Amino acid sequence: xxxxxxxxxxxxxxxxxxxxxxxxxxxxxxxxxxxxxxxxxxxxxxxxxxxxxxxxxxxxxxxxxxxxxxxxxxxxxxxxxxxxxxxxxxxxxxxxxx
Length: 98
Hints:
The strands form two sheets. Strands 3, 6, 7, 8 and 9 form a five-stranded antiparallel β-sheet that branches. Strands 1-2-5-4 form a four-stranded antiparallel β-sheet, with no helix packed on it. It has strands spanning 2-7, 13-21, 28-32, 45-46, 51-59, 63-70, 73-75, 82-86, 91-97. A hairpin with a 4-residue loop joins strand 8 and strand 9 (91-97). The chain is globular, with a radius of gyration of 13 Å. It is built from no helices and nine strands. Helix content is 0%, strand content 55%.
């Protein structure tokens, strides 16, 4: 898994590229408080090499909790900036600091 951040000079936006290695997966989405934990509009595209990749435009100077949804199972990114306990989910979420 990988996270790449590209800050735009002309807008208060950061283009965040999420990459997940999941060759056997059928569907991967990135969900978080930036999209109300809704997987509908956050599916990552499967590439020929078996990885899933997608780019989201997120407001900079914010902190976001997120996880990946891989074939219905939530997983964290080991490259998250940090982790935060979530009582609702009873688990840790990855944290993205922009």
